[in-house]
Amino acid sequence: MKSILAWVISVLLAFTCLGMNPTTVAAQEYITVIENDIEDDGDWTVSSDKHFFPDGAEGCKATAGSQTLGMANSFPEYGGKAFVNFDFALVPGDYTVTIDVCNFDGPKDDNGVSADLAHADYIGLTVGGDKENPGTLLTTAIEASSSKPRVAWAQTKQWSFNYTFADNDPNLGSKIGFLIDTPVKKEFLNMSFDNLKIEISPAQS
After folding, report:
1. Does the domain formed by 5-202 have CATH 3.30.470.10?
2. Among 66, 103, 122, 197, which is 20 to 30 Å from 20 by CA?
């Protein structure tokens, strides 16, 4: 996992030393606070050791790092919850979360047709989680502008989620995370994820 939180803090401290209001300056543009390449390096909690696929597997290329996170609605070892938690506390502001989604061109059924795109019934920012617990999925703050375009076989598209947290949000101060939940329903459906990014435009004081 790569986080540039330390860089963000140093920039805001520099603004303070120059006599500038760091919140006002930062609010003028989005700052990337989390970049996660979704690798099998211990950051993510998954249901089995079968979730991570090498670059190019079943037509899905890694867009960050050398692996993608495979999820499916077929069997327990490929479905269920995958989540990660970060050492970044929720602050007021506008958040944009993006993740790359690919539709595996395989495996194929008896007729030679690849599995279709899986459905992640619960996906997005969380708060209050740990290594064993994904925490609480944040649904009340998500805006209607979120985008989850349909993805063709062996194609990758970016999904995005937009949140606004007011200065009286009850979750402020809680550590944030990200959850992907693909319920196991024995459906011949799968997908992969890569390159999670979280950007924030802090609220003006």
Report:
1. no
2. 197
Q: Tell whether the torsion through CA atoms of 58, 72, 55 and 33 is positive or negative.
A: positive
Structure tokens at 193: 């994820």
> How many C-beta atoms surround the C-beta of residue 195 within 10 A?
19
Please report, rounded to a whole number, the percentage of residues in the chain having pLDDT higher than 90.
Answer: 71
Contacts of 76 (CB under 8 A, 6+ apart): 47, 48, 184
- Domain extent listing, the chain: 5-202
Tokens representing residue 147 in the block: 């985008």
Round to whole Å and give the CA distance between 43 and 129: 13
Is the CB of residue 125 less than 8 Å from the CB of residue 163?
Answer: yes
Q: Return the higher-pLDDT residue of 27 and 97.
A: 97
Mean pLDDT of the chain: 86
